Amino acid sequence: MRYNYKDLGLVNTKEMFTKANKEGYAVPAFNFNNMEQMLAIVEACAEMGSPVILQCSNGARNYMGKPVVAMLAKAAVDVAREMGSDIPIALHLDHGSSFEQVKDCIEWGFSSVMIDASHHSFEKNIVESKKVADYAHGKDVTVEAELGILAGIEDEISNEVHIYTQPHEVEEFVAKAGVDSLAISIGTSHGAHKFKPGDDPKLKLEILAEIETKIPGFPIVLHGSSSVPAKFISMIKEYGGEIKDAIGIPNDQLRGAAKSAVAKINVDTDGRLAFTAGIREVLATKPGEFDPRKYLAPAKKYMKEFYMTKITDVFGSEGAYKKATK
Ligand code: G3H
Ligand code: 13P
Ligand code: ZN
């Protein structure tokens, strides 16, 4: 064991989710890829007193390196405490694809993992998820699995159409797999193109409602929940970027879900858009600028402001814990 997550000041998601479901909000799971993004996330959540899941994909882990991921997560805890906030912080593997990968993440300080075996058969999904849950629980690490497939690219596997989660399968799945939370497919998808122009951007909230009756109180997870803010799309275009027909999930659809048994909502793309808009703005308006801090600081500011707005408009998790005093 290189790092035990508890020594880094991190927590698993168990108590976070119990409190979130009891109090009718969802915990933000924001993906991070570097120091600026980690700081934007933790400062936003500490200022608002919101619990947070620092979410790291395998790609992000390869980009940053294992020790850096662990030390950035530890730094996030220290930053929150320095700010006078007691928010719980989890470090979570996003879309884990194998038992070996999950094991390696746990050895390097992750407090929570996802095993995404959703593209396998129902039976194989249970076997793979259970293997991970048995191992992870031995280390007091929480496990998310997925049932149903999101349209678009998911874990390097692409699917033309949504395969919605079948409500009649969820009870058996969670009982047999023994996982702590379940990601479902109700019409969200990854990336900046979630609907085609002219589509009605609606989620299948009736499927969510039915799932909730099958597994009452069980923590449900929504992936692919970026709202793709028009402000960042127009900034990116104005300052030389190309991004066509980008459409996200309307916040009002997600807000209703957050009040229900949805305990975790994943947002990655919106952070990327805010970051890119901020950098493009500085580089386009100040072409002589070559100090990275001068374009990374505004990019971080846009991300932080975005995370705070999303907490208010979608998660409803403000004030769940002590807000920063400094
Ligand atoms: O669900 C996928 C996440 O948005 C992570 O994306 O693998 O490019 O880091 P990534
Ligand atoms: P978005 O692409 O909508 O941000 O979804 C992120 C996600 O689900 C990460 O697992
Ligand atoms: Zn995802």
Brief rundown of the structure:
The protein has helices at 14-23, 35-48, 58-64, 66-82, 99-107, 122-138, 167-177, 205-214, 230-238, 251-259, 269-285, 292-315; strands at residues 27-31, 52-57, 89-96, 112-115, 142-147, 152-154, 157-159, 181-184, 220-222, 262-267. By secondary structure, it is an alpha/beta fold. It starts with 13 loop residues before the first helix and ends in an 11-residue tail after the last helix.
Report the span from N to C terminus. 35 Å
Cα gyration radius (Å): 19 Å
Low-confidence stretches: none
Question: Strand-residue fraction?
Answer: 5-15%
Structural class: alpha/beta
Query: What's the number of helices?
Result: 12
Q: How confident is the prediction overall: mean pLDDT?
A: 96
In helices, the fraction of residues equals: 40-55%
Number-wise, the strands total 10
Q: How is the quaternary structure best described?
A: single chain
Main β-sheet: number of strands, strand sense, barrel status?
8 strands, parallel, barrel
Shape: globular
Q: Major sheet: order of its strands?
A: 1-2-3-4-5-8-9-10
Q: Which small-molecule species are bound to the chains here?
A: glyceraldehyde-3-phosphate, 1,3-dihydroxyacetonephosphate, zinc ion
Order of helices and strands: HEHEHHEHEHEEEHEHEHHEHH
